[in-house]
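seq as requested:
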Amino acid sequence: MGKKVTVAIAIFLFAFSTTVYAQSNSLGVKASTLGLGLEVERSFSDLISGRIGVNYFTYDYSGTEDDIEYDFDLNLMSLSALLDWHPFKGSFRISVGAIYNGNELDAKAKTSGTYDIGDSTYTGAQLGTLKGKIDFDDIAPYLGLGWDTSFGKNKAFGFLFELGVIYQGSPKVDLSADGPIASDQTFQNELAKEENNLQSDLDDFKVYPVIAIGLSYRF
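struct tokens:
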């Protein structure tokens, strides 16, 4: 499935760069749940257009997961290749495509006297530093709808708005510790249980919502 998506993106990017039917181009800047974004759009006709975009943002916060307090570093980084259909030959569009999903979450457990890992309890001295990394599928399908008020019009600037969803699959959780007990097999078994618990807690993020607003310049 991943190879098929990659081939489809490659074909789309080739068409994007070589099509002789382009009517106009636009450059857009956006703020969204994927971060701050920049995208280039080309219209192939009054019904079809395509976009290539990049998004990036970082954010630090604290939270509790499975009774353990963590400091989280959220790193948002994604690349998009989307095909837009404008059914009314105007600003409204329906979009499909693929996202290269580099979004990930780094976690570091806050200092504590004891930690409940799996079904066992360990001291901070035994555990050392508990760290984790959470990420998702590298290639994720996208479906959305939105508006570009400059599309099909003879005006340079337009307003962008988009609603969509990314299916990024089940979270992949990798936990590690650097204390004296880190290499103990019993502890590793409990750590695997803790990873499963975290994956269950984060399973709602299989589908990631996208809300975006921005401005476009058509040329």
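The first helix runs from residue 2 to 18.
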